[in-house]
Amino acid sequence: MTLQIIDNATCTFCGCVCDDIQLHHDEVRIHKANKACVLGTAWFLNHTAEQKYPAALVDGREASLDEAIEVAATLLHEADMPLVYGMSNTTCEAQKECVAMADLLGGLLDSHTSL
Amino acid sequence: MGGKVTCTLGEVKQRADFIIYWGGNPAECHPRHFTKYTIMQKSKFLPRGRKDRTMVLVDIRETKSVKAADIFLQVRPGRDFELITILRAMIKDQHVADEQLAETGLARDVLEDLVARMKSAKFGCMFFGMGLSMTRGKHMNSAALLTLAAEMNAFTKFVAMPMRGHGNVTGADVIMRWQTGYPFGITFNRGYPRYNPGEFSTVDVLVRGDCDAAFIIGADPGATMPQPAIDHLKRIPTIVLDPHVTHTSRLARVHITTAPQGIAAPGTAYRMDELPLPLKPALKSPYPTDEEVVRRINAAIADKPFWLPEGSQPQMLTAQV
Known about the structure:
Largest sheet of chain A: 3 strands, antiparallel
Oligomer: heterodimer
Strand content of chain A: 25-35%
CATH architecture of the largest domain in chain B: 3-Layer(aba) Sandwich
Order of helices and strands of chain B: HEHHEEHHHEHHEHEEHEHHEHEEEH
Mean pLDDT of chain B: 92
Number of helices of chain A: 3
Strand order of the largest sheet of chain A: 1-2-3
Number of strands of chain B: 12
Distance between the termini of chain B: 36 Å
Low-confidence stretches of chain B: none
Number of strands of chain A: 7
Low-confidence stretches of chain A: none
CATH superfamily of the largest domain in chain B: Dimethylsulfoxide Reductase, domain 2
Number of helices of chain B: 14
Largest interface: A-B, 87 and 109 residues
Radius of gyration of chain A: 18 Å
CATH class of the largest domain in chain B: Alpha Beta
Number of domains of chain B: 2
Distance between the termini of chain A: 46 Å
Shape of chain A: extended
Mean pLDDT of chain A: 93
């Protein structure tokens, strides 16, 4: 099977965000990440499209995505002072939704920066 | 840019003939920083590349980055703020006492040489890492270094830039600044954003036990935070979104698996110089993206009654004529 190639792909492992990586991939995994450093290569090659984990876990048991979303919303809504934290390994689009969540909940909002 | 005296990495690559790395180890943590942006590149203004550039490393111990440096200054641990303050005095030819110098562990002639080199540079850039911003003094150290960069502009062009780790942590700062006016450590508990690191920053909130639920996305505090903070996360309902089942997922009430950003999820990420770059995902994940899941949780929360009683919600002021 021939591999597909993506030129100038973006690596998001560290703050350098190198945008000149050449990825050789098939449907399931990335086989080669040209120009990437040691850390970037590990980042690209260790993530696959396999279904390794359950869609969601609620109290340690496997659950559907819909159920997990409903439980999460209920727990956050019930809290008086919920905290929204992290946002490092995610896209700006998701980060914007997180700000909206903290606003909606009247909660705390913080990122890795404050550590 | 949040008031920083800074520039893009493209400008550093083209023009910076004097580079200081302070409290960071780019050789191991940002392996392509030297070759792609800073000391190794040849440019129109620095045609001989490495030979035209001077690189200084300031750290508390010898790391692998020392090999790449022209000058290595070993500062005593926890004395970064003192050293920056002394440099700020020395560039203005103010008197610095011997005992103040002794505190930093560096000799006067070494610092005089550094100051002379800084002033004679055409374009200086200081990169600071967590060795500066996460040790004694914390954000006051960063503020002092940024002030030093600003003050150096009385003599020559000088900028400073944080060395950010963790992929899109710069994006988090930028997005929060855009949406709330503040970069981190924010609360909405009065209905509008307020900012106070130390009071609203996560470690402090968790150690004091102030929050009664936590939503963790794109982070693994269960592996990185101090034990009292982790203990509090165990006590309260925690919700985790991550491509892997992490340490935090194991102590959480809810874990949702999502597609990894940039590999299977599209979007935007910010580089450490606050330049947004589009992601080019190679794979199709069986899991939803973070954006989709957070949006669906928000929709489910919005269906429930608002947390403030009717009539007490903050209102936008409209102009009265």
